[in-house]
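Sample A.
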Amino acid sequence: MSNKKLRRLLREPLLHFGLIGSLLFIGFGQINNDQEMADNVIVISSGRVSQLQSLFESTWNRAPTPAELDNSIEGYVREEVYYRDALLLGLDQDDAVVRRRMRQKMEFLLDTGSYLAAPDAGELEAWYAANQQDYHQGDRLAVEQVFFGEYPEPETIAQSIAELNSDQTIDPGTMGVGTLLPGRLGLSTSAAVDNVFGQGFFDQLIAIQQEKWAGPVESAFGVHLVRVYDRVPGRTPILSEIRDLVQKNWREAKAKEIRENDYLQRRSRFVVEIERDDES
């Protein structure tokens, strides 16, 4: 073939399209082959082996033997084989458990980032100021009690109060009726006291003069005489006293905020159409 004919052939558009098509065909074939090889190859990296070994050690509190480590690796391979084939069959689709787990993993990634974050200068102080009511510590009382049953005689109550207040040597445990309720509670919150004696018992103690026996005070079990022998008024601690707790709560709130903002941003990319059955 002469040079003139060769140059004319090289300028032919059909030849150009043919060459391009051949290159694309070869390229896509190579990509498909690479993808097929990747799909058929399971790589167990040294990092994965170390992870499997650590998991064994945390479970059994000892290092695995070579055979046990081989079993762990084979177990991982078995899991990977079924996982890949399950994806090919589309078994991950329309599965509520899988959907929920994937959402949890996405949120976990966001939460991990928020827990690594530290508040900017003044941010923790401002957050604490806005949420101080959550850290208020209520009154705490220390109380001594004598149980007199469900329906004691008023005269018995009055006489017992007079005796206990006039003679400090009387043992309160010798009075009243037997009970499994504690005779004394050290400094306790309202929740702790009410947990023992029933809802509302602590509120009745607030108005009682300290170091004086008083009553009758009703509980979920019956009637008591009580003596408040110590009292710590409620207060809101300053930030420096509970900084670690406040920072922990701030991070939890930050994680929730980041998660919600992330969802709203992702949600905005979608148009949601809800089909409902016509209501009669």
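Sample B, a different protein:
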Amino acid sequence: MDDPVIAPRPILRFAQDDLPSMTPYFKVSGSGNDFLALAEPPAEPSAGEIRAWCRRGVSLGADGLFVLRRRGAAAVAMDYFNADGLPADLCLNGTRCAVRLALHLGWGADRVTIETPAGAFAGRAAGEERIAVELPGPPAAPRELEVEAAGGRRHGWAVRVGVPHFVLVLPDGLADAPVATLGPALRHHPAFAPAGTNVNFVHFPAAGGRRRMEIRTYERGVEAETLSCGTGVLAGAAAGLALGAVELPLTVLTAGGFPLEVDARDGRWTLTGDARLLARGELLPEAGRVPPPPAWAGGPAAFG
């Protein structure tokens, strides 16, 4: 007997006039920090849209979103939003990705000035899929601080690199770093109220000869560990310099597996590393229609 012929299901198609509302986007990644990018959108996305689009599994998913607008010859402006939909003054990996996207769009030849709420920075191509951003060093030296959290005294360094960070040094390595437990306890600690803080766990490997650092980060606004955090890398480097544990130039390995390079000259710091363009497409309305996660799922209720 012949196999039955199964009629193919019709493909749902839209007439040109019936196309649903679509939002063009780019998906980018900086050493594991991934972002959605909107280039000169007709309107700013709402906080609810950003939260929905950044939800992993039920929408595209990302650590954050930035809006990029051209400001003239080799100059752009960037507004950055964490995955919770709230704006942040600075995300350095996001800034490096924004520079890469601006150059890809032809808004500069090999370098561009990028304006952020934290200031205007110089960005440039530094090789294939690599971008360097130059910025002023931390406005103040890291401040040694000890707080009570998660049942113990936690000694670290508070430092601001556009956004607040708290750096803890783990001499035995990062494999067992309590990022998921101690990270949120410190992120919301009263010592860092009202804005809270990012939390970085760093290790200075003995084999590194004072020029290597490893880091894991619990990111404020993502409310989870991310694969990389550019401002966290600079915060960890600043703490390492204050301790006399490292010297520049410094190579930093993040959880994403990409090394980032930190250097400084004449009071200005440079962060160099991977910044890649992953995809481009159009967000359909269903990407923005997601339910809030239930409390027992373990995710922050604000997402959704």
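Observation for Sample B: The longest strand covers residues 152-161.
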